[in-house]
Amino acid sequence: GAGVSQSPSNKVTEKGKDVELRCDPISGHTALYWYRQSLGQGLEFLIYFQGNSAPDKSGLPSDRFSAERTGGSVSTLTIQRTQQEDSAVYLCVSSPSGGAPRGPDTQYFGPGTRLTVL
Amino acid sequence: DQQVKQNSPSLSVQEGRISILNCDYTNSMFDYFLWYKKYPAEGPTFLISISSIKDKNEDGRFTVFLNKSAKHLSLHIVPSQPGDSAVYFCAASAGSASKIIFGSGTRLSIRP
Which is more confident, B108 or A30? Predict the structure, then answer.
């Protein structure tokens, strides 16, 4: 795989349902971020995984949001009891060493999952 | 609390002229600043960065200026080209292992 993949690319769900968004990062990358972009807004940090360290969950907007990263690779972002304000594009970012890149091509964004909550 | 702010949601510049995109930040602990470019239906891609120990970094047509006392940075693109039309995100981080905080983006349109 050449890059970060996310699935599904689009998800439409009804208010109150649970959704799972998946991210397959680049193999060997130790850091993984989830961001979301709501309509007209910037990129909002959600959660950051770095190696075996405890994830930085400071950006999760509520306890309805959770994320896991299994085996240091694939990550799943789960939103329980979805609300209309959860509608956004959810972006996964993979980085070889975490933190801010000190040069080009060291942080790779996935194509995103567009979530629409009706 | 927006730690990274891009107060201009959009900017239109004539082809060949200079594009200046501005960004302000509030967290004095930020020590690394980045600009990303995003085309429609694609994820953002890294463009240029600057460390807080510098006040200028240049890469071809792109130059980033950092004014720490004003907590302000700017991205200059000269000369502007049609392919530069995109959304530009300013971002910052505090420390080598910390998360990156993004601004809300500025949509740059280059007109013929």
Answer: B108
pLDDT at B93: 85
What lies within 8 Å, CB to CB, of B110 at 6+ separation is B12, B13, B14, B15, B19, B80, B81, B82, B83, B84, B85
Given CB atoms, is A84 within the 8 Å cutoff of chain B? Answer: no
| HSE toward the beta carbon, residue B32, CA cutoff 13 A | 16
**Interface probe, candidates A34, A37, A43, A57, chain B, greatest B C-beta count within 10 A:** A43
Q: In A, which residues are within 8 Å of B43 by CB distance?
A: 4, 91, 93, 108-112
Minimum Cα–Cα distance from B57: chain A residue: A103
Q: Which of A2, A7, A1 is nearest to A92 (CA)?
A: A7
Interface with A, mutate which of B42, B49, B100 (most A CBs under 10 A): B100
What is the per-residue pLDDT across B72-85, written as a single tens digit (0 to 9) for each?
999 999 999 999 99
Chain A residue whose CA is closest to B31: A100
Q: What does DSSP say about strands A88-95 and A108-109: parallel, antiparallel, or unpaired?
A: antiparallel
Peptide bond into A104 cis (omega under 30): no
The residues facing A49 across adjacent strands are A32
Distance CA A115, CA A32 (A): 20
Out of B6, B93, B104, the one facing A99 most closely (by C-beta) is B93
> How far is the C-alpha of B105 from the C-alpha of B23, rounded, in Å?
9
